Amino acid sequence: MATKDASGPGVFQNMVRHQYASDNILQSYDVLKPQRQVSHSPKASWIVYIHGGYFRDPKVDSTSLKPAISCIEEPQATSASDLQSRISGYASLNYRLAPHPAHPQDPNTTPSYTLNSAKWPDQPDDILAALKAGEAGITLPRAVVGVSGIYDFPAIHKTNPDYEDMTSSGMDKKYYEEASPALYTAEEYKEKWDKEKRVVVIAHSKDDGLVSWDQPEEMMTAFSGDGFATELVELKGQHNEIWEKGNELVRAIQKAVELVA
Ligand SMILES: N[C@@H](CC(=O)c1ccccc1NC=O)C(=O)O
Q: Is Hydrolase one of the keywords UniProt gives this record (predicted)?
């Protein structure tokens, strides 16, 4: 059983933190492998979570998956047992973060292993290192779920010019296109993601408040055509509520699990 503190954010007794590199404390990931009564379906999947926070918010980390895990693993959760049987476990990643103006650190007194000074491509490099470090090493996913994401940096700098400060805190301008998943073609994805069935779920709320609906729509067009099973899932709630409450994030996960089956 995955046990949880009834009062606070999910405290799971079986959750284990692993360090995949030792330059920075954030080069870690948390693993939860629930021991349950329900038997796993042969198609059960690992949920691998990569948190957001504009790759710089120290308040958003691997633990932001916990409310969603609670929704799935709590015995009283409605229709959760069906989803439980399709999930083998959870891995939630941390990666080095960029500096954040609201959380200043003095580089002269802050040890480098807690200093947030990441610059692109440190963030994706860390994520790839974490995926390779896992028990079996995660190679090609069955499904990818994008949740409340920014998929095109140049486009969001047009709709929200003030966001460029956030982007530039963790990324040089020369990477803006390269770091925008909506600017790759279906052919490029098919080449790198060599699977018969490529499940892509893009989940977003029209009430997001921070990232407008044109971002998920643009991401969907990149995955249109043969070779993809895609779905745009409309979530309910504001940007941070999606994982803070967890139930809407679970809906996105559930859709991916359904499409994989
Ligand atoms: N909390 C973040 C801001 C943030 O996460 C964000 C802001 C605008 C648009 C999208 C955002 N989140 C991306 O995952 C920060 O303080 O930098």
A: yes
Give the pLDDT confidence of 51-85 residue by residue, as tens digits.
Answer: 999 999 999 999 999 999 999 987 665 566 689 98
The predicted-structure confidence for 82-114, as pLDDT tens digits, reads as follows 899 899 999 999 999 999 999 999 999 999 999
Residue showing tokens 């503190």: 5
- Write down the residue that tokens 């949880």 correspond to: 4
* Claim to verify: residue 133 and residue 163 sit in the same structural domain: no
Of the residues 49, 50, 54, which should be mutated to test ligand 1's pocket, given the most ligand atoms within 8 Å of the CB?
A: 54
Mutational test site, ligand 1, from 207, 210, 240, 243, max ligand atoms within 8 Å of CB: 210
- Give the distance (Å) from ligand 1 centre to CA of residue 54: 5
**CB neighbour list of residue 53: distance below 8 Å, 6 or more residues apart:** 59, 60, 61, 64, 97
Q: What is the pLDDT of residue 7?
A: 43
Question: What is the structure's pLDDT at 163?
Answer: 98
